[in-house]
Each structure stands twice: as structure tokens, then as C-alpha cells.
Specification:
The protein is α/β, with parallel strands linked by helices. It has 15 helices and 15 strands.
């Protein structure tokens, strides 16, 4: 396999992390552990003999991440409904088995094991935080099952058992930093949630900054779900940074931006670039608290194309005219179609056949044409910087000239050398 080095990196990185240790305890309770040869060699229990095929949806419908993940589940539901209405996958109707990850990595690992070994699903769509993904990764590798992960993340990972349909670092964070540099920004303050994605993303941001004449004036982390940002926001204000790079996740963003406005900070004085706030979160934060701030994504509801207009209309018809579309849920929607297209190319639901067929599979997505890179299981993405406006929507103010090839290990960036070691 061309990507064996990258996959071995993933396993060694997990083995060194505390996330795997915690996950192993959970998996021991449900009969499987990372590295268990019996699990690795277990035969699939997926049943392809009937006129239906099971897939899993694993998203947080409760806990601090529910503010973001409910809409992802909705998008998976929409894709399954559309595919079934169009004849299904290889003539079979999709039967969706849904589980709640409850915003807890250990629960995600436990539910993933259930979906694979008890429900016998052909693939699972879900996860949001990198902690949840890393908790699930050994489950999918040990069972040789497939996870389609729909959210932008910190990169430095590739697994033969995960398809990454959200942006990797060179498709979101690096373009955002390039944009800020073009705007004359020379200093940043970093604010993030205290877990894998923000910590790794900020390592990358600091490496970029050192190579591009930017100064990091502060760096603060807070636990997921934190609601007291008075100290951090006061430190941000006192720093005098040109901009803030925000990697907070979940409902912590509500408290952060309310406090940001309360102390009188404005997008004009000190803009915040966020990489985990999409249209769905804007309503929860309150548009009055975040209007004018910037986001870095690959999709916005306001993209004007026939494919996206049809997608937005279908989503609103099913879930309500007041429900916005957003990048992570669009990537989840895309992931179901990419699985369908790959299965049909392979003419098989078997995991080895799907893995072998994946390279080059395309889908004309609401964000634009995307294609799976068979070397790393990521997809091409067009980077977009957006501005939040008073209608609660996000409008593109800059975009890359075309789709960006995924480079999860940042091998094309000399300043990133050593980050994946």
C-alpha cells in the first residue's frame, strides 16, 4: 500500500497518547482492544443477502457538542433519504442505525464497537472532535471497518479505515493564515479548547508564524464546555494582537464571543478567525455578538451554484426554513454519497474492495467537485474565508483558485518539517 508509512505513523502516534490508553479500557469492556489480533482478523458480519444494507450514524445528540453535531446527523439522514429515493446503493435500500456519542470520546468508542460488531453496519458516518475520532480509530482499524469523518481537523493522520471528508490543515488553517498575512497581520493570540485538535493546530500555527514573520502574543486553552472567559478575554485585549485565531469548539464559543463583545473588542479592532464556528453556531452565539467576525471553511450556505441551491432547498424543506446549512454537515452529506459512489465503483460492500476502489472517486458536491485521494483517504477541497453578517449567514470574501489537494502531513511545507514526528 502506498500509504503504509502514514498509517504506521497514525498507530504509533496513538500508542503514545493518553487517548488510546483511555480507549483501551473502554474496549476491554466490550471485547476488543487496539492491537488485539483476534479483533483484527475477525470476519465482517455485514449482511448483503437482502434488499437492505445497514450503515451507522454516530453523532453527539447530547452534551456540549450537540450544538454542532445535531445538524450533522440531519445531513446524514437527508443523504440516506435521497439515495434511497433514487434506488439505493447497488439496488439495496440503506437502513440507518443511529447512536448518540454524548460528547464523550469513550462513548464514541463504545458505540462504534456496537455498530460494527452487533449492528453489523457496512460503514459509520460521524464523529466531530479529534478526541472522538482518535478514540474510534483503533476500533475501526482492529475490526477492519470504515469510518467517514466529516469535520475539519488538525491533520498529521491517515488511516486505511477512515475517510476524512472535512478539511485537513492545508485546506483550512494554512489558507486562513495566508489570508491574514496578506491582510498585514503580524501578531496573533491563540484561544482554543483543551484537547487534541486545538493543541495540534496551534503547534502548526506557531510553526507557520515563525517562518512567516508573525508573533504569537498569547496562547490559552480551556476545557470543552467552559463558560467563564473573563480572564482569557482580558488577556487577549491586553495583548494588543492584530487578530485572534480561535479553535474553541462547542458551546464555549457562545460564552467567548459574548464576553469578547462585553469588553468592547470589535472585528475592526481585533478580528477573530474561527475554524469551528459555522452557520448553525451563529444562531446560538447570537449574531449581535459575532457579526463581522471571520471564519475559515470550505463551504457556506451562501455559495451560489445550482447544486448548492438544490441542497439548501432540500435541507430546509425537510428540517425547516429556519435551519441553515454549514460546512461540517455538508461534508457529512458528501461522505454518504462518496461511500455510495465508491461501493458502486467497487461493485462490493466489502471493506478491502471499497478501500481499493476509493482513489479518484468523485462527487459533484454543494461545495464544488470533490475527489478522494487514494494515498491518504482525504478529499480535495476549495478553501474559503467568510465573514459573518447581520442575517446570520456567512459570505465568502476570499477563496482558493481551485480545489486544494490534501496534504495531511504538510509534506509540501518546509516550515512544517518535524511536526509529524
Amino acid at each position: 500500500m502506498q500509504h503504509s508509512r502514514r498509517y504506521s505513523f497514525t498507530r504509533s502516534a496513538l500508542a503514545a497518547g493518553s487517548v488510546l490508553a483511555a480507549t483501551s479500557l473502554v474496549l476491554a469492556g466490550c471485547g476488543s482492544r487496539a492491537g488485539d489480533e483476534g479483533a483484527a482478523n475477525a470476519e465482517s458480519c455485514v449482511d448483503t443477502s437482502g434488499d437492505t444494507i445497514k450503515v451507522g450514524a454516530l453523532n453527539s445528540l447530547s452534551g456540549t457538542m450537540a450544538i454542532s453535531e445535531v445538524t450533522v446527523r440531519n445531513a446524514i439522514d437527508l443523504a440516506v433519504e435521497q439515495i434511497n429515493a433514487d434506488g439505493g446503493v447497488m439496488g439495496k435500500q440503506i437502513q440507518l442505525v443511529a447512536e448518540d456519542g454524548a460528547s464523550e470520546p469513550a462513548v464514541f468508542a463504545e458505540k462504534a464497537q456496537k455498530l460494527i460488531s452487533s449492528d453489523c453496519v457496512a460503514a459509520v458516518f460521524g464523529g466531530w472532535t479529534s478526541s472522538s475520532r482518535k478514540a474510534m480509530l483503533p476500533v475501526f482499524e482492529d475490526n477492519n471497518a470504515l469510518l467517514y469523518y466529516p469535520v475539519q481537523y488538525e491533520g498529521l493522520e491517515a488511516s486505511p479505515n477512515i475517510f476524512y471528508t472535512g478539511a485537513t490543515t492545508n485546506q483550512q488553517i494554512v489558507p486562513a493564515l495566508d489570508y491574514l498575512k496578506e491582510q498585514g497581520v503580524t501578531s496573533l493570540y491563540l484561544v482554543g479548547s483543551d484537547y487534541v485538535f486545538p493543541q495540534t493546530a496551534n503547534r502548526i500555527i506557531k510553526a507557520y508564524a515563525a517562518a512567516n514573520g508573525m508573533e504569537i502574543l498569547g496562547e490559552d486553552y480551556t476545557p470543552l464546555g467552559s463558560t467563564d472567559f473573563s480572564t482569557i478575554v482580558n488577556k487577549v485585549r491586553a495583548s494588543g494582537a492584530d487578530a485572534v485565531f480561535n479553535t474553541l469548539n462547542g458551546d464555549s464559543n457562545v460564552a467567548f464571543f459574548r464576553e469578547y463583545k462585553n469588553v468592547g473588542l470589535t472585528p475592526q479592532e481585533m478580528p477573530v478567525v474561527s475554524v469551528s464556528i459555522a452557520e448553525e453556531e451563529v444562531g446560538g452565539i447570537g449574531v449581535q455578538n459575532i457579526e463581522g467576525q471571520l471564519t475559515a471553511w470550505d463551504y457556506y450556505q451562501t455559495i451560489d451554484s445550482p447544486v448548492n441551491n438544490a441542497f439548501v432547498a432540500a435541507y430546509k424543506e425537510k428540517f425547516g426554513a429556519d435551519k441553515p446549512t454549514s460546512d461540517p454537515m455538508e461534508a457529512a452529506y458528501v461522505s454518504v454519497y462518496l461511500w455510495k459512489n465508491t461501493v458502486e465503483k467497487a461493485e462490493s460492500f466489502a471493506v478491502p474492495d471499497v478501500q481499493e476502489a476509493a482513489g479518484g472517486v468523485e462527487f459533484d458536491a454543494p461545495e464544488g467537485l470533490v475527489q478522494i485521494d487514494g494515498d491518504n483517504n482525504h478529499i480535495t477541497k476549495t478553501a474559503r474565508i467568510g465573514e459573518i453578517r447581520n442575517d446570520g449567514l456567512i459570505y465568502t470574501i476570499w477563496e482558493s483558485p481551485g480545489p486544494i489537494e490534501p496534504d495531511p502531513f504538510l509534506e509540501g511545507y518546509p516550515w512544517a518539517e518535524g511536526l509529524s514526528g
